[in-house]
Amino acid sequence: TECLSWGIDRERVLGGRTGVEVYFDYMRSFRAEFDDCFAEGLISAVEIGLGASGELRFPSFPERLGWKYPGIGEFQCYDRYLQQNLRKAAKMRGHSFWAKGPDNAG
């Protein structure tokens, strides 16, 4: 897959760690590795992308389906972990039918 799902932000599915923990450690390691470059002013800013190619597009361009730009967008609720969140939220509000993504959106 091209990117991590928001659905694993709090799920310990990456060697016992959450997506947030992995990203936090990655950024801390980056800062430590390039500390001299920051101190010397060689690096003055870091731009963090929100997905593949720096775009927040998950999962609108699924590579396994041929990646056609801009392609037909999908809904993030099709992710296994986000589906769980959607079902829970729909049930809590008394609208269990909200837990199904549209089947005619393309």
Task: Provide the descriptors you would attach to this structure in a database record.
single chain, 106 residues, mainly alpha, elongated, carbohydrate metabolism, GH, Beta-amylase, glycosidase
What's the layout of helices and strands?
Blueprint: H1 19-33, H2 35-39, H3 80-92
Keywords: Carbohydrate metabolism, Glycosidase, Hydrolase, Polysaccharide degradation
Catalytic activity: Hydrolysis of (1->4)-alpha-D-glucosidic linkages in polysaccharides so as to remove successive maltose units from the non-reducing ends of the chains
Organism: Opuntia streptacantha
Structural description of this entry:
By secondary structure, the chain is an all-alpha fold. It has one domain (6-99). 31% of the residues lie in helices and 0% in strands. It is built from three helices and no strands. The chain has helices at 19-33, 35-39, 80-92. It is elongated and about 55 Å long. The model has no long low-confidence stretch (mean pLDDT 79).
Shape, principal axes of CA atoms: elongated
Unreliable stretches (pLDDT < 50, length at least 5) are: none
Number of domains: 1
Mean pLDDT equals 79
The total beta strand count reads 0
Rg computed from alpha carbons, rounded to a whole number of angstroms: 18 Å
Overall structural class, as computed from helix and strand content, comes to mainly alpha
Could you give the order of the helices and strands?
A: HHH
* Percent range for β-strand residues: under 5%
Distance between the first and last residues' Cα: 22 Å
The share of residues in helices is 25-40%
Largest sheet report? none
